[in-house]
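Students often ask why we bother encoding 3D structure as a string. The short answer is that it lets us treat folding as translation between two languages. Here is a chain of 261 residues written in the first language.
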Amino acid sequence: MRIALGVEYDGANFNGWQIQAQGRTVQGCVEQALAQVANHQVRVFCAGRTDTGVHATGQVVHFDSDAERSERGWVRGANANLPDDVAIIWAKPVSDAFHARFSAQRRRYRYVIYSRPVRPTFLARRVTWEYRSLDIERMQAAANHLLGEHDFSSYRAYGCQAKSPVRTVHELQLSRSDDGAFIMLDIEANAFLHHMVRNVVGVLAAIGAGEQPVDWSREVLQHCDRKLGGVTAPPHGLYLVGVEYPEEFAIPYLSPPQMVW
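And here it is in the second language, the structure alphabet:
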């Protein structure tokens, strides 16, 4: 039987999602917890591998098992064996045609910037601190240049292993919390390149601070050269918040939890 899970985690103390030779990973913790419930080794496949320090409220994974457990049993059993910074939110049987990564149609991320002159304490590894005053109207105008299908070579990491740099951005929206302290960037695309969101944030932040013109985001895009792009924003403010699948799989798509922002 194939089981799909919704996973939430605070990535601050993980070396990313994917299992590595050394270091604590989300995948390693989830597989160990599920193995305790299934009474056999488990291999999980995720919708999107997140980097060191990146969080998720809507990660989706799948695994195969011949163990007979209820949906509630998978959730409660796994959570009983998981550390406090990882939780299984839901579980459901799916057909063998479902694949957490390859069946995904869209992925959605949120990047949270904490904007004030003094660095944060309690939120230090859950948001990205920005001491500069950012104009989100300028940032939004620049973000609009990135909507649609483009070659995002200038916005991906040097080591990105994707076969094609072409991606389609369906939504890219900036907003600010009522108290003005938090700036949220919500972006949805068919798929993302390595560091793509963080590199987009780096360019937009420079524009919002008035260091670059609004059209710079388009110029960077047209160069198709990472060396001519902006800085890579820190991982702490990045959250994978949702993955969309064909309706036939009935995969839950939950809204991001209402946090301080």
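Translate back mentally: Residues 106-240 form a domain with the Alpha-Beta Plaits fold (CATH 3.30.70.660). Keep this in mind for the problem set.
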